[in-house]
Amino acid sequence: MTDVAVHRARPETKEQRSWYWYDWANSAYVTTTATVLMSPYLTSVAKAAACPDLAAGATCTTNLSFFGVPISPGSVYPYTVTISTIVSAIMLIFIGAIADRSSQPTRLFAGFAWAGAAAAGLMFFVSGSNWQLGVLLVMITSLCLGASLVIYDSLLCRIANENERDRVSSKGWSFGYLGGGILLALNFALDLFHEDLGLDRATSTRVSLLSAGLWWAAFTVIPYRGLRHITGTVAPPVDRRAGVLGGSLTQLRTTFRELRLYPQTLLFLVAYLFFNDGIQTVIGSSSLYGIEELKFDETFVLGVFLFVQFVAFFGARLFGRVAGKVGAWRTVLYGIGLWTVVVIVAFVTPQRATTTFLALGLLIGIVLGGTQALSRSLYSQLIPKGREAEFFSLYQAMERGTSWLGTLAFGLTFQFTGSYRWAIVVLILFFIVGGLLLSRVDMRRGIEEAGNPVPVVV
Question: In the chain, what is the straight-line distance between the N-terminal and C-terminal CA atoms, in Å?
Fold first, then answer.
């Protein structure tokens, strides 16, 4: 059996401090746009297209037509995320293979980040009944975000050793929630005082969407400059005549054949597919649920999400400390149990039950960042050296903003029942299945099979 790791955790390095800032940068889009604003805003634009004469507070019963397929306006955003994920699942694995062989991985990372930020900023022009533009931009942004995160996450393996990754990953996530929370606070103020500024609600929302793109682009400069010295590649060499793309395609075929040699890694990925789909769908649909099902106004829901962001900053740090005591694997399992409680509470919450909704927000904030941050660091221990971006592309296809089973189940349940309450409760199955599969992952064995040193606390 492989000996326990001998690498000790070091003091925080300059590269680690630079790396944190991309969580800060992209979380502005993830929080303001993907989580809070775009779902209800795109739904309202879709409703305006389907029912242009709909009275305030009335229910739109007319479907939109997308290449002849009838779509409920309330299902447009979940279906958009579903399609984005299917496209991403195909594209990201190629991007990961190419990134492992790129001589400038940080430049590739920044290119995808700035392209995604540009698409996010262009959401300012989604207005009236132009829901198709919104769908297109959400898809482009989702793909670019996923591509940048494939490379960003893989850099974790190069800036932190096995005993540092839980701490570094958790701190990065906490940075993300703090940065996302600050921009959300500014956008909350804009929403609250939009009339005093001479803006209508739709215009203030569009300005907020623009601000998320600008924030993402501006703060990406910090990790790019701090990590740009990381050059070259540690991936297995390929035939020069094949080129980067041809060699990457060849290596992808090898990866899928070799994945069976890492059964614990494969089992973790399948478990992650389920419980992360549940998490992502809860996060992405919660504002829609609060506005459409629980009948809270948009300003109140935005305020609750602001509260969640700052709670999540402390929650991510707390989970990192717990993982240092009992191990990240057990801590993530505890987190999945808490997510199940979140869904149950959401299902039974009455309309306009302010106190219950705030308590729900507190619970989400505590568990939100920790499960995701520790899942990232857990997976980094299970992948072979030199194949980080390639393996993280499989991981990222199921990461935040790119889940598809959960959003598909959510959208279909609403389509057939007309109730977001039943749509949300379906997600319990994802946490149950994901938790059971994760409980069967033998982390120590998986780390050894990948040829990596075993952390002191697994």
Answer: 15
